[in-house]
Design a protein that fits this description.
The complex is a heterodimer of chains A (318) and B (96). With 318 residues, chain A is mainly alpha-helical. Helices cover 69% and strands 2% of the residues of chain A. The model of chain A has no long low-confidence stretch (mean pLDDT 95). Chain B has helices at residues 33-44, 69-73, and strands at residues 9-15, 22-29, 52-57. The chains are: A mainly alpha (318), B alpha+beta (96).
């Protein structure tokens, strides 16, 4: 009996997906759909939160007050993006505490790009231009993702992200138009971030076990390789405009496919960083854990304060 | 790990400008209403998206059941006469 009911609910769900009707929090959904979304949205949220660290590193050393204000504002946006996404994930029945515990225990991942260090100011330009550029490429299709709250969060994120990319490009442009030493700084940062950025799109399609199901459920709209290709095609002309050399000897224009052929990503490095052995994995996580633990008394005090006030209010009423 | 209870969840509604409705924009955690409004300002109105904020603790929101949506909203589907387009108006009649 129960299986019959379940089947019709599942059919209803599949029908909505086929007809591009968004799934909303209280709608019936397959358990695996829910799990996939919790994993993807919480990892996305964690990436925004951990992503504040490499850039936060340069707030006190930004070269001018204008750049400092911009960077501060960008990092604050990243916190906001993390919060939109956590709240979207919470509509699926997981809790904030659970997600944070999973991040801190290493069970949940975040984008491996944030496990690379920001060695010079040019890295801040490269991150905005490349990393936020790649994030936009990933996120714009997510505006049409099948789960309503995730899609709505993406609308806000994408709107804000475009300032992030432009400010990064502007930093790069300023450096590239500056003294030879500045230009060199920009090229070195570009060399450092190009390949890790290409890794942001995830493993090759042939090695991405979740892609097929996610595409069928319209959580994902494009495969990892499709997005990576688009990104390369978009960025190469921008690098040329800046006078920067793409650090890929295999990069060539392919007239037939109307796109670039490019070298293979170092997948060994990718998996190594995913597994926790990147240059900054330990540092990033320990910084997060420390911030969380040192903030515990604030959270407790705020809760105690709210309870005390509520109690006083109740006594007044009585 | 610490055992501390989470701050309650609040739903946030924002009026983008005078004359428009408050619209649901998302949720956040805060220890009380005052903090929820302050956090909502920081999280949801960094680019002048609002002139007024409502917050409601999520546990106070009651919702219709989506599994019964078809039956629940069904009574409206066969009452086309509730729409002005149901009625025939001769072409000579203006301003109606």
């Amino acid at each position: 009996m129960e299986t019959i009911i379940d089947k019709s609910l599942e059919e209803l769900f599949e029908e909505k997906i086929a007809n591009e009707i968004r799934i909303e929090p209280k709608d019936w959904m397959p358990e695996q759909y829910r799990k996939t979304l919790v994993r993807q949205i919480s990892q996305h949220a964690h990436s925004e939160i951990v992503g504040m660290l490499p850039e936060g590193n340069w707030i006190t050393r930004a070269p001018s007050l204008k750049r400092k204000a911009i960077l501060l504002s960008k990092v604050q946006d990243e916190a906001g993006h993390g919060l939109y996404l956590y709240s979207a994930a919470e509509t699926l029945g997981t809790s904030r505490d659970q997600m944070i515990a999973d991040l801190h225990s290493g069970k949940a991942k975040y984008s491996s790009i944030f496990n690379y260090p920001t060695l010079s100011w040019a890295d801040i330009g490269a991150i905005g231009w490349l990393v936020d550029g790649a994030a936009i490429m990933n996120q714009v299709p997510l505006i049409r993702t099948s789960y309503g709250p995730y899609a709505r969060a993406m609308v806000r994120v994408c709107k804000e992200e475009s300032f992030h990319q432009r400010q990064g490009f502007e930093i790069m442009m300023t450096l590239c138009n500056g003294a030879p030493a500045q230009k060199k700084m920009a090229q070195e940062a570009f060399n450092r971030w190009w390949w890790p950025t290409l890794m942001m799109f995830g493993p090759k399609d042939s090695e991405s076990p979740n892609t097929e199901q996610s595409m069928r459920w319209k959580i994902k709209r494009f495969t990892n390789d499709e997005l990576r290709q688009r990104f390369v095609d978009m960025m190469v002309p921008q690098a040329e405009f800046l006078g920067l050399t793409v650090p890929d000897k295999d990069l060539t224009w392919n007239e037939a496919k109307n796109g670039y052929d490019f070298g293979d990503v170092d997948w060994e490095e990718f998996w190594n960083v995913v597994k926790g052995n990147g240059p900054c994995n330990k540092d990033r996580l320990s910084t997060r854990v420390k911030a969380h633990e040192e903030g515990a008394w604030v959270r407790e005090a705020a809760l105690a304060h709210a309870q005390k006030r509520a109690q006083r209010e109740a006594e007044k009423q009585a | 790990m610490n055992q501390q209870k989470e701050w309650p969840l609040w739903e946030v509604f924002i009026r983008s400008k005078q004359g428009l409705d408050h619209k649901h924009v998302g949720s956040l955690h805060a220890s009380d209403a005052e903090m929820a409004i302050q956090n909502a300002r920081d999280v949801y109105t960094r680019r002048m998206e609002g002139v007024s904020i409502w917050v409601v603790e999520s546990k106070h929101v009651h919702a219709s059941n989506p599994d019964e949506a078809a039956a629940f909203f069904d009574p409206a589907t066969d009452k086309v006469y509730r729409h002005p387009t149901f009625y025939e108006v001769p072409a000579e009649i203006k301003n109606m």
